[in-house]
Amino acid sequence: MWLMRCFLGILIATQVSSSAAASPRKVELQKNLERNKARTGGKAQPIAWKPASKFADNAITGPKEPKYFHEPGVAAAGHYDQRFFSGFVNDRERHESLRHLIRSWLQWSQMQGVETWLAHGTLLGWWWNSRILPWDTDLDVQISEATLKYLAENFNMTKWSYDFDEENFHGTYLLDINPYWTNRRRGHSSNLIDGRWVDRNTGLFIDITGLSETHRAQRPGVISCKNNHRYNVKEIYPLRDVLFEGFKAYVPYAYDIVLVKEYRSKAFTLTEYEKHQWQPALKSWVQKNSTQPYTQFTLKNGKTIKIKREDPRGLEAVPQPSFMENISRLVHYW
């Protein structure tokens, strides 16, 4: 067992070093980072975990808080900010908007020395292939309560512009911190989200939630958000330095434990979800209608039959992963 752990440790180190190798695309992204940093005048102010503030143990009493963030009153529009919603975007536009959202957030947070890490479905997307899950409609990041306080006092309602020259893209984003962030318990469930990083062009957003030690006496070292996702501090810190959508990002130290607690172990093994299928050889989620070697037809008598399609993209044409690729995937289970 000890030898096995050493072997896996070497594989991890090799994988990390190879992923960090310089590439023309990474050089171009670094140029964008430096240019945007010069324009916004970012100052490094790293914030680590701090004990609960005076707000954390305050129980919510009195009348129900009014809901702060609002979504359009349209069916299936729950992942758009009402203020900037002008209509639904198609799947390609949605994916590109979310991709630029997270890249701009990662750039901005590093410029300002703001500590943040990937959470929920966004964290799961990183685990699979360091990309946004293709069916995601919004993104999630987490911060400490100390960072949340810092954002509320220094950057609330500020607008930021970013350029990505390699894609000829320009976007503007709003950082909006919920004024009820100081109530650190769930309360009336009207304001579970502490902040948003909003795309002013589409209305799509990143949900920002803070973690607080709300019951320090009863559960020391346990931190939670207002939606009752609980973590041990040691599961979050020290943060791991990773790449996500080509940019430097952070994930919880015990990301596997965090994901299993939220999605169970099937999150690591389920290879078909939301009309997508995981293709190991491609290291990507692909829509099933472009990978299935069969088309299903319904006959007049109600029975169904499968007819094989002559499609080079069919599953039988996808090469099987190599031994080393399988070992690399197994590293994530340790």
TrEMBL record:
Keyword DNA-binding tagged: no
One Gene Ontology cellular component: membrane
UniProt key word Metal-binding: no
Pfam families for this protein: LicD
Primary site of residence: membrane
Signal peptide: 1-21
Bilayer topology annotation: Single-pass membrane protein
GO biological process: glycoprotein metabolic process
Location of this chain's protein in the cell: Membrane
Domain of life: Eukaryota
InterPro entries per record: FKTN/MNN4/W02B3.4-1, LicD/FKTN/FKRP_NTP_transf
Keywords from the named record: Membrane, Signal, Transmembrane, Transmembrane helix
Domain LicD/FKTN/FKRP nucleotidyltransferase as annotated: residue spans: 112-216, 225-264
PANTHER family xref list: FUKUTIN-RELATED (PTHR15407), RIBITOL-5-PHOSPHATE TRANSFERASE FKTN (PTHR15407:SF28)
Protein name in UniProt: LicD/FKTN/FKRP nucleotidyltransferase domain-containing protein
Organism: Dactylellina haptotyla (strain CBS 200.50)
